[in-house]
Design a protein that fits this description.
Keywords: Signal
Number of strands: 16
Low-confidence stretches: 1-16
Distance between the termini: 82 Å
CATH superfamily of the largest domain: Immunoglobulins
Strand order of the largest sheet: 1-9-8-3-4-5
Shape: rod-shaped
InterPro entries: Ig-like_dom, Ig-like_dom_sf, Ig-like_fold, Ig_sub, Ig_V-set
Protein name: Ig-like domain-containing protein
Number of helices: 2
Pfam families: V-set
Largest sheet: 6 strands, mixed
CATH topology of the largest domain: Immunoglobulin-like
Helix content: under 10%
Organism: Triplophysa rosa (Cave loach)
CATH class of the largest domain: Mainly Beta
Structural class: mainly beta
Order of helices and strands: HEEEEEEEEEEEEEEEEH
Number of domains: 2
């Protein structure tokens, strides 16, 4: 019986009005607004915001104009605000723990709902380039210098890459959290090409240029 009622409820949602998903990718610490597309709330309007797919019935923020109620989940009150005119949800100082599915239900003359897929990326560290010897190949001549580009405490969807000019030489990526990524590169002591190490995620990047003469000045010794 419960399953049938749930299916009927979903069908009613579809009949009354369903908005497509919106996808948002943001950096940790940003302020993000999820818009209801309502220009002004009227008497008897109800705005409900829910989070996650495991417990979609957990209301994290709500406006009920009929009984003049505006409430925000106690657990999230330091990060959430509601626009009193439109019911839009404002997430301040967003963290990676706020990544997930946000569901909006608008109850007025009809029932409408909207979904937001929000992905929050951690701030990228600046890559560090150092000279190493343990990761050089055994065939390296004395005129070669081995350098290592490293980043620590990186999160998901982060890549580290070496470029020679505009050409990609090598790359490594990670899907885990809070690990160290390192990528070696061998260069000639007298190489005059431009090398750079780039760490990036889908929305931003940091670049560190290799100064061969600074790191490899004793290569020939």
């Amino acid at each position: 019986m419960v399953r049938v009622l749930a299916l009927v409820h979903l069908c009613l949602w579809h009949f009354d009005g369903v908005f497509g998903d919106e996808v948002k990718s943001v950096m940790e610490g940003d302020t993000v607004t999820l818009y209801t597309d309502v220009t002004e709330l009227h008497t008897h309007d109800v705005i409900q915001w829910m989070f996650g797919v495991q417990r979609p019935d957990e209301i994290i923020a709500e406006i009920n104009t009929e009984i003049n109620i505006k409430s925000i989940n106690e657990r999230l009150k330091n990060h959430l605000q509601l626009n009193p005119q439109t019911g839009s949800l404002i997430i301040t100082n967003i963290t990676t723990q706020h990544t997930g599915l946000y569901q909006l239900e608008i109850i007025r003359n009809t029932v409408q709902n909207k979904h937001f897929n929000v992905t929050v990326y951690a701030r990228l560290p600046v890559p560090d380039i150092s000279r190493v010897s343990s990761q050089c190949s055994s065939s390296s001549s004395s005129s070669c210098c081995c350098v290592l580009c490293s980043v620590v405490n990186v999160s998901h969807d982060v890549s580290v890459s070496w470029y020679k000019g505009k050409s990609l030489l090598s790359s490594i990526s990670v899907s885990d959290l809070n690990i160290r990524l390192s990528l070696p590169l061998e260069v000639e002591y007298q190489d005059t090409n431009t090398y750079r190490c780039v760490v990036n995620n889908p929305i931003t990047n940091h670049t560190q240029h290799l100064h061969i003469t600074h790191l490899c000045h004793t290569c020939a010794d």
